Prior knowledge:
This protein has 2 helices and 9 strands, in the order ββαβββββββα. It is of the alpha+beta class. The longest helix has 15 residues, at 32-46.
Amino acid sequence: MPAQKPNPGTWTFRLKYHMTTVLLHVDPLENLSSVKAELLKALQETTPTEELNGKPLPEGPEQFRLAQPNNINDPLSGWTQIDPNPFEDEGDGSRGRRKGKTAAGQSVKAMGLQDNAVLAFQWGEKDKNIDDGDMDVEEEEWDVVIPSSEDVFDDENEGGVAPQ
Length: 164
């Protein structure tokens, strides 16, 4: 699908990986597969080495995983994956089906996403297994760096005045 041209009906998604943010214009009736395809195309067009943060880009858009913040007002509170792999067995025979979170064929609007949504993306192997007492709980780390005010405004440049 070609990239969406902005119009009054399109939404803007901010997709974050490490310190990179990709802005995509998305039709609210488009599904996540289309969003992932547009994300891959945007990354391929803007990274001549086909690497992002030293990691080779995926071969296909289906390799991306997307997540939304647990608390939209606090992106440091963690992320929840919104697009389980339909081919991955969840352990209960559901094959990637989670109540309220199935992404297969649903539009981004039907999934509950909104205009100006912030989503994390990643690809490749899942990052972390954490032992939670009696059972192993798989917790995925999402590589999203949120700049602090010190990163944006260095201490030497107080008051927003450019150095001479």
